[in-house]
Amino acid sequence: MARRKTATISDEAQVDMTPMLDIVFILLIFFIVTTSFVKEAGIDVNRPEATQSSSKPAANIFIAVTENGLIYMENREVDVQRVRANVERMLAESPEAQVMIQADQAAKHGIVVKVMDQVKAAGIDRISVSAEQK
């Protein structure tokens, strides 16, 4: 008489999850490293409207100019003479950086021009000015 082997709970096949977890962690690290973090200027401004504005999301350095003439970079107020040093520091961290100036529609254009001059003196020729799409 032959004995029949019956399957028990301990004999069931189990899936090893270790390789899948390794792949998930590698993908997570990949996405964290390749993500570019956007640094805002740190203040909301009332941007002017423009009918011919275009979307350029490639800016890494944001400079805000308020209606009172205050200049903000990285959530802190800076003097117009310190804009160049701050942009040079940011440019050293990210050599392909571009600048976006977010000027309030009531800001004096003389201050905006001074900020643009400081950015150009820091070595960035391509400067964008933010506007609302009309």
Outline the fold blueprint.
Layout: H1 18-34, E1 49-50, E2 61-65, E3 71-73, E4 76-78, H2 83-93, E5 99-103, H3 109-121, E6 127-129, E7 132-133
Parallel strand pairs: 1-7, 2-5, 5-6
Antiparallel strand pairs: 2-3, 3-4
Helix pairs in contact: 2-3
Describe this structure in words.
- With 134 residues, the protein is an alpha/beta fold.
- It has a domain at 49-133: Nucleotidyltransferase, domain 5 (2-Layer Sandwich), CATH 3.30.420.270.
- Helix content is 31%, strand content 17%.
- It is built from 3 helices and 7 strands; from the N terminus they run αββββαβαββ.
- It has helices at residues 18-34, 83-93, 109-121; strands at 49-50, 61-65, 71-73, 76-78, 99-103, 127-129, 132-133.
- Strands 4-3-2-5-6 form a 5-stranded mixed beta sheet, covered by helices on one side. It has a two-stranded parallel sheet with strand order 1-7.
- β2 and β3 (71-73) form a beta hairpin.
- α2 crosses α3.
- The longest helix has 17 residues, at 18-34.
- It is a single-pass membrane protein; Single-pass type II membrane protein.
- It is found in: Cell membrane.
- Keywords: Cell membrane, Membrane, Protein transport, Transmembrane, Transmembrane helix, Transport.
- Belongs to the ExbD/TolR family.
- This is Outer membrane transport energization protein ExbD.
CATH topology-level name of the domain at 49-133: Nucleotidyltransferase, domain 5
The percent range for helix content is 25-40%
**What structural category characterises the helix and strand content?**
alpha/beta
Q: Name the shape in a single word.
A: elongated
Number of DSSP E strands: 7
Low-confidence stretches: none
Series of H and E elements: HEEEEHEHEE
Number of helices: 3
GO cellular component, one term: plasma membrane
GO molecular function: transmembrane transporter activity
Protein name: Outer membrane transport energization protein ExbD
Keywords: Cell membrane, Membrane, Protein transport, Transmembrane, Transmembrane helix, Transport
